[in-house]
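Changelog-adjacent note: as of this version, every example in the card shows the full chain rather than a window. The one below runs 216 residues end to end.
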Amino acid sequence: FFFGLCAMAPVLFLYGTEKGNAQGICEELIKDAKDKGFEPTVDKLNNYEKVGFGEASLVIMVCSTTGEGEPPESARKFWRWLKKKTHPEGMLKGLRYAMLGLGDTNYSKFCNGAKMIDQRLLELGAERFFNTGCADDGVGLEVVVEPWRTHLWPALAAAVSGAPPPELPADVAATLSGAPPPAPPAEAKDEAKDEAKQETSPASTEEPECSQGQGP
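Full-length structure tokens:
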């Protein structure tokens, strides 16, 4: 499926990392891309000019968040350029991208570094070809990273071919967004309460039987 459809399609991979997680995930994505027949280029977000970001048509980004919800140092030069108010409307029209954000819900402004870049790309006319992922280091990045990585490639293949993007199951879309799981229905809650009561009920006060001749 991938090799015939996407042979040698150029894809730019960019990362913004503080502790190396975003870079490591990006390198894994590069391996996947090569296996599936794409022609990937990878670099830091700060090197956007060097790798021709302005002329790219397909870009995949992995970006962490640091400080007070800011992009990491390796992405700040890119963010300073991207947020300039002097950019013309529609400057990035024709660019299709996917974003994976890394954050931690134990801190405020979860995944804000990636979210700011994501929003600004849309404002400048770029178009998402795949759902933005928000991975939480507080529960394990892999909870979001693995399904995002799995479903990325069919979406990228569709973007290359011009086909409509495949629809994600609702539960997968919710997971990628970092949304909490839906609350169980009322019946399930009642059953859970009953089970909890049974588990916490006082133990029997009857003395256990001992076999004849058993010592203390």
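Structural remarks: Residues 199-216 have pLDDT under 50 and may be disordered.
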